[in-house]
Each structure stands twice: as C-alpha cells, then as structure tokens.
Amino acid sequence: MTTVAVVGGGPAGLSAALFTAKNGLDTVVFDTDQTWMHKAHLFNYLGIESVSGDEFMQTARTQVTEFGVEQHQGEAVVDVERDDDGGFTLTSGVDEYHADYVVFATGANRDLPRELGCEVTDEGTIAVDVDMETSVDDAYATGATARAEKWQAVIAAGDGGAAALDILSKERGERFHDFDTPADVE
C-alpha cells in the first residue's frame, strides 16, 4: 500500500510529493498535466529570476522523480473512497490504488474531494485547517483546490509543503520539520 497518494501534479501536488518522498514515505502522483503552469511565466517566484511554466514543471517533475516519487503521467483519478481500514481507495481508468493519505491538488476542479465528503466553504473551495487537512481525516486539499482566486505557484507549493509536513508529523508521532543544512547536501 502507498503511504501518500497525490492527485494533481502542479506546484501544490509536486511540493507535497517532494516533502513526503524525501522523508521516506512511499508516494505516488497522478498527473493529467492540466496545470495552469503551462500558461505561466514565473517572475514572482522567490529564488527564480525568470522561468517559463513548462520549464518549471519539467524541473519539478525531475526533482520528485529523483526522490523516488512514482508518477502516473496522464492517468486521471476518477474516484476516491474511504477504505474499511481507514485509508483510501483511488480508482483511475487504469487501476485501483490504496493509500493511507490523499492530497488533492486538483486546482479549481473540486469534484473528487466533494464526492469524498469534504466540507466546502461558502466560496465553493474545499474547507481546510492551517495544515491543509480537510474535514475528512487524512485527506488534504492544497493550492486552488482550497483557495479561491489565489492561483500563485508559490502559494500552491507552500500549501503542498504544509500538507506534507502534517502527514510526516502524524507518521512520526511528533511535529516534524524538514530543514536541511549545508552538511546534508551530497
């Protein structure tokens, strides 16, 4: 069984996948490549002077692959249900998958978390707490899935990081911080 299943491969989803996989959790990303990043050029992303959205996505995908994330490019998740064991069953057009946690990074398409039973805000977004967890335990919503009209890559990536750190904290039984030092670099 996969520990973390991420539905959506934009900045929010890949950020969550990066943190969880980097810290030893078995992570899979389902990516239909419908991210708004293909229409973007980043001049406002901290640490990046100027990069096309396509180039940013290629770099991000390469990075998560290097940390062992299993990527299902072009594979759409069509259903997510709660398992009897407390995890989740994700169904795609290809197969059925099981995970302990699910991270929705589906942009403005909020159908899957709604169908799972996640509470919705008055604005129509998925309601989350400060750690990006929804009203369904162990289900997270990140980026535009949880934020109305705040479609910035840096915000989405931060949301993904927040969700991942909460998952890692639950898995370790204490607050977890992913903070590397120069000595950690290979």
Kindly list the characteristics that best describe this protein.
186 residues; alpha/beta; seven-stranded mixed sheet; globular; 4 helices; FAD/NAD(P)-binding domain
Short description:
By secondary structure, the protein is α/β, with parallel strands linked by helices.
Mean pLDDT: 91
Low-confidence parts lasting 5 or more residues at pLDDT below 50?
none
Helix content: 25-40%
End-to-end separation in angstroms reads 30 Å
Largest sheet: 7 strands, mixed
* SS class: alpha/beta
Name the beta content range. Answer: 15-25%
The CATH homologous superfamily name equals: FAD/NAD(P)-binding domain
Q: The CATH topology is what? A: FAD/NAD(P)-binding domain
Task: State the name of the first-level CATH class.
Answer: Alpha Beta
Anisotropy-based shape: globular
Number of strand segments: 9
Would you list the SSEs in sequence order as H and E? EHEEEHEEEEHEH
User: How many discrete structural domains?
Assistant: 1
Q: What is the level-2 CATH architecture name?
A: 3-Layer(bba) Sandwich
